[in-house]
Design brief:
280 residues, alpha+beta, four-stranded antiparallel β-sheet, 2 domains
Length: 280
């Protein structure tokens, strides 16, 4: 889900942290300012890029002006940013009508730092009655998201993957994450994945192909979990139960010590898919 600019920024973040550890020199920083403008709205993002110290970025700030009047001017401090908030891309702000309500929204992509974590969408919605901006944050975890117009209509979906599956049934590198598609309406992020069965089926087919190559090996349980989630989204619970039963009988549900195996894996998967809303 990450763009080339995001990967470049994260590489710079890692390199800067390594330089800080190796050099131990005095702290130095420079302010970076970038803008995005559309439909009479200008979003100005500023932050300090530190060449020394434990945080490569600091003082992330957003100012939003509409028709030349500043309506929002504050530091970016989502609660998910325990240590710091960094810009997730070199140009982290976008302006578009995400909710298809005739009001341009400001989208700010934020990175929290940490292993396999976390990309946030900090969404600022314009209220024409109060002439102010309301803020709502969604955590996409490690997968991030991609803006798409999936059904040909002039509205946007946010295509991602379910980060809750990470580490659940396999080590991270073997944890596969089923498709998730979101839409924003009324200031809420709404899961609309089931509205796109063809995309779910394509996702399920990719996990199935991978699992058939690794079945019986300890790293296959992560792929099978993602496949099962997609199949439940498609409403094919009988197929999932049959495959799991046959795999258990053939001793193919091995965890290699990371999570349960065999019948215990089936029970744990059933519980997890129920808790996460795949089994309804």
């Amino acid at each position: 889900m990450r763009s080339r600019s995001r990967r470049g920024l994260l590489a710079l973040l890692v390199a800067t942290m390594l330089l800080a550890v190796a050099g131990g020199a005095y702290a130095a920083s420079k302010m970076v300012t970038v803008q995005a403008s559309a439909a009479g709205v200008t979003a100005t993002v500023s932050y300090d890029e530190n060449t020394s110290g434990v945080a490569p970025y600091s003082n992330l700030h957003l100012m939003i002006a509409r028709d030349g009047k500043v309506l929002y001017d504050a530091a970016v401090t989502p609660p998910q940013c325990a240590r710091y908030c960094a810009p997730a891309e070199t140009h982290p702000a976008k302006i578009l009508d995400l909710e298809s309500d005739g009001q341009p929204d400001v989208l700010l992509d934020v990175y929290t730092g940490g292993a396999h974590c976390c990309f946030l969408l900090d969404l600022f919605r314009h209220d024409p009655q109060t002439q102010s901006y309301a803020q709502v944050v969604h955590d996409f975890g490690d997968p991030g998201y991609k803006l798409e117009q999936l059904d040909g209509k002039p509205r946007y979906e946010l295509v991602s993957a379910d980060d809750r599956f990470a580490y659940e049934f396999a080590a991270y590198v073997y944890s596969d994450l089923p498709l998730q598609i979101w839409r924003v309406g009324g200031g809420r992020f709404i899961d609309v994945t089931r509205s796109y069965p063809q995309l779910i089926a394509r996702d399920a087919a990719s996990w199935w192909k991978g699992w058939t190559k690794t079945r019986g090996i300890h790293d296959g349980n992560g792929e099978l979990a993602a496949w099962a989630a997609d199949e439940y989204e498609l409403g094919d619970s009988a197929k999932v139960k049959q495959v799991l039963s046959q795999a258990d009988a053939a001793d193919q549900l091995r965890s290699g010590g990371f999570g349960p195996s065999g019948a215990a894996y089936i029970a744990a998967l059933d519980k997890f898919l129920t808790q996460t809303g795949y089994i309804r």
